[in-house]
Amino acid sequence: MAKFILSAFADEAGKSLASQIAALQRNGIGYIEPRAIDKKGVITLSEDELKEVRRTLDDGGIRVSSLGSPIGKYPIDEPLAPHLEDFRRALQAAHILGTNLIRMFSFFVPQERLKECRSEVMERLSVMLDMAKAEGITLCHENESKIYGQMPGEVADLLRTLPDLAGIFDPANYRMNGADAAQGIDVTLPSFRYMHVKDAIFDEQAIVPAGEGEGKIAEAIGKIDRRTDNAVFLSVEPHLRLFSAYASIDEHELKGRHAFNSKGEAFDFAVAALKKLLVSEGYSENGPFWSK
Questions:
Q1: Distance, CA of 25 to CA of 76 (rounded, Å)
Q2: For residues 281 and 222, is the Cβ–Cβ distance under 8 A?
Q3: Are 102 and 90 in contact (CB under 8 A)?
């Protein structure tokens, strides 16, 4: 039986690190997946800034589950070398912030060119995987719109071909692109590392709280639970309000069934929805873990 630990993209609650820590604390979450802090992407922060972030997180009792980096979110036709500098910064950031996991992607690829670009995708990922392995870092691939690993078939291909690559399961990203989320978790499980928690309804192109959509989140959590006895992060990524960090990375128009007066309110609602789902599935909070 798995021991689930909640984490979150707290930049959806506030821009400043202080507001992000406050949101995590009031929701009883002890981990963060840092993506943007004070309007800066986490891998653009200087070494001194990262060390200050680490000190502030430590003081607030918050640890880093995984680095929410944008690595691999650029067109496959762009030269690799300049992006390797960003990747080296991501490795440094992970070390300073105290995590051995980095979230990343498999490059923007025109979906009609998947077969043509496959070898280049694999070669580039292999380069980064070798660099990460030398640093004791695990790269975790997120299924995302318009990248090579958008649909379950390509995600399965990535994880089979690259055994050092771990998988992040994002049910909403699958549903927003018309894929069956159950197929998504099934292909990810052999290499599964952690889960992004947000839900979606395909016909409405709507992001909704966990359990309100077609992402089959409860089913996925059950499958994960039956497969491992390890600690597993459930990283809340609400997307219930359109905010600048998301608008810059995804062209889907976000619609929803709930209206919120603030980012903090939307964040709290998303966390509460996940906790409600966990309780409904027979889980209870035991210290830092949710388990049966």
A1: 39
A2: yes
A3: yes
d(CA 216, CA 277): 11
Burial class (CB in 10 A: 0-12, 13-18, 19+), 115: exposed
The SS3 call for residue 5 is strand
What is the SS3 assignment for 19? helix
Query: Rounded to the nearest 10 degrees, how much is the dihedral formed by the CA atoms of 233, 31, 155, 146?
Result: 150
- Residue 167 has what DSSP assignment? E
- Which fold is adopted by the domain 3-291? TIM Barrel (3.20.20)
Torsions phi, psi of 289, nearest 5? -110, 155
Listed by start position, the domains of the chain span 3-291
What is the per-residue pLDDT across 114-149, written as a single tens digit (0 to 9) for each? 999 999 999 999 999 999 999 999 999 999 999 999
Q: What are the residues facing 236 on neighbouring strands? A: 8, 197
Count other C-beta atoms under 10 Å from residue 78's C-beta: 11
Averaged pLDDT, 57-61: 99
Exposure class string for 248-273: b at 16+ Cβ within 10 A, else e: eebebebebeeebeebbebbbebbeb
Residue with tokens 């603030």: 262
CA distance 184 to 187: 6
Mean pLDDT of 19-29: 99
Residue-level pLDDT at 241:
60
Query: pLDDT tens for residues 83-115?
Result: 999 999 999 999 999 999 999 999 999 999 999
Give the count of beta carbons closer than 10 Å to the beta carbon of residue 153.
13
